Amino acid sequence: MAPAKEHVVVLGAGVVGLSTAIRLLQAGYAVDIVARDHPGDELTVAFTSPWAAAHHVSVATGADMRLHVFDARTFKVMSDMIRNENDVPMFFTPQLEYREQPRATGAEDELSQLSLMSRYHPDFRWLEPHELPEGIQHGASFTAILIDTPHYLPWLVQRFTELGGRLHRCGTLNSLRDALAVHPSLLNVQLLVNCTGLGAKALVPDDKVFPTRGQLVIVCAPWVKKGVTRLGPNGVYDYVIPRPKSGTVVLGGCAERNSWDPKPRPELARRIKERCLAMMPELLPPEKRAGTIDDLDVVGDAVGLRPTREGGVRLEVDYTAIPGVPVVHNYGHGGYGYQSSWGSAEAAVELVEEALSSAKSKL
Ligand SMILES: Cc1cc2nc3c(=O)[nH]c(=O)nc-3n(C[C@H](O)[C@H](O)[C@H](O)COP(=O)(O)OP(=O)(O)OC[C@H]3O[C@@H](n4cnc5c(N)ncnc54)[C@H](O)[C@@H]3O)c2cc1C
Fold first, then answer.
1. For atom 19 of ligand 1, which residue has the closest CA?
2. Which residues contact 340 (CB under 8 A, 6 or more apart)?
3. Buried-state track 249-276, b at ≥16 Cβ within 10 A, e below 16
4. CA-to-CA distance for 78 and 363, rounded, in angstroms?
5. Do the beta carbons of residue 243 and residue 93 sit within 8 Å?
6. Is 216 in the pocket of ligand 1 (CB under 6 A)?
7. Ligand 1 test: best mutation among 22, 196, 260, 342, most atoms within 8 Å of CB?
8. So where are the chain's domains?
9. In this structure, are strands 227-231 and 90-99 parallel, antiparallel, or unpaired?
């Protein structure tokens, strides 16, 4: 076996840290993860990844073509994983996207969210006028990917450890440098990758990072196999995302900028249930199809905080945060950390290669 390349620490064990750590191991590095929260821990609002539903339905537009590239790459990687790995908790699903606004024209249309997705979803098609429900001006149908997050995160941990990675627990760190003191074997690592999501706001610190609050209602409806999103003006949107392995369905949503409120609000939960049931009556079992939201089999309400960043994901080498140890930042994935995970992990590995070869050339 070839000797491992340099020793790298990844700070953070969410979907971004785990995917990055796996790609680093596959590139030949020795990798340790250090994190306060690990998959399988009791849920806390400080750890975003376990809250996401999640699906791969890109939100990239022409305003962020780098995100489009990450999402397209991740769609390819995840599709291959579904086809080639028996036990991966991800699934193809029929997806309907409804828009209350008219379709744009010209260049604006070419770089819209749906048009960009049409470039890599093989069965993408625009909906015909007769397929549009009342109040919907345009829409699309295609096969999307569902990521059953309560099962996918432990799956990533297992993949990481099978590849030889080691996972360490720490408390809330106050500086990036503290990550190197979590275990004696980390004192001489050559590089740190920072995947701390919302934690980066205080840790880096980075004022561009802020929470975008999402509230969800989780219902038991194992017969629901398709996803639907309805987007209105002013950012109002509803979505239904099945978790096939768990037999539950996630209803959303909201996107409240700069709200740290960790508690579900009953009036918002009610609105989410009403709007989602109107959009998809099949959320009720066949014998209750004409029922109301009181007939939904609600498993729980949830709140997660998306780690949003003005200007998008920070992917950058930082030579000043820890003297003598380059830091590669990979945080700020907002509401798209799963669907961009493999693309942004591979971009981070390229930065690691660059930073370490530049350090070697200076010796
Ligand atoms: C309601 C909701 C729905 C969503 N739906 C989707 C979806 O459908 N598709 C999609 O792609 N994305 C979705 N997302 C977004 C996605 O969940 C996030 O982008 C993603 O989980 C961010 O992952 P992360 O690894 O960057 O951060 P996190 O999962 O928060 O992980 C951060 C890690 O860093 C550690 N850490 C942070 N600070 C410190 C510190 N100071 N000291 C020590 N350790 C620290 C934490 O303990 C943790 O291990 C959704 C999010 C929400 C809330």
1. 337
2. 67, 70, 71, 74, 313, 333
3. bbbbbbbbeebeeeeeeeebbebbbebb
4. 39
5. no
6. yes
7. 196
8. 7-361
9. parallel
Strands (E), the chain: 7-11, 30-35, 55-56, 90-99, 125-126, 138-147, 166-169, 191-194, 209-220, 227-231, 237-243, 248-252, 256-257, 298-309, 314-322, 325-331
Distance 237 CA to ligand 1 centre (A): 21
The model carries a pTM of: 0.97
Which residues pair with residue 215 across a beta bridge?
Answer: 303
Q: How many residues does the chain have?
A: 363
β-bridge pairing 237-243 and 248-252: antiparallel
Hey, what amino acid is at 194? N
Beta strands 7-11; 191-194: pairing state: parallel
Task: Give the position, in ligand 1's atom list, of the atom nearest the Cα of 338.
Answer: 11
Question: Which numeric CATH code is attached to 7-361?
Answer: 3.40.50.720
Amino acid code (one letter) for 131: E
Amino acid of residue 190: Q
Q: Residue 236: how many CB atoms within 10 A of its CB?
A: 13
Q: Is the CB of 214 under 6 A from ligand 1?
A: yes
Residue pLDDT, tens place only, 111-161: 999 999 999 999 999 999 999 999 999 999 999 999 999 999 999 999 999
- Index of the ligand 1 atom closest to the CA of residue 174: 41
Kindly state the tokens that stand for 22.
């796996």
Give the pairing type, strands 209-220 and 248-252. antiparallel
Separation of alpha carbons 183 and 247, rounded Å? 40
* Residue pair 149/339 in contact by the 8 Å Cβ criterion: no
Low-confidence stretches of the chain (pLDDT beneath 50) = none
- Closest atom of ligand 1 to CA, residue 332: 26
Instruction: Tell me, using a 6 A CB cutoff, whether residue 141 lines ligand 1.
Output: no
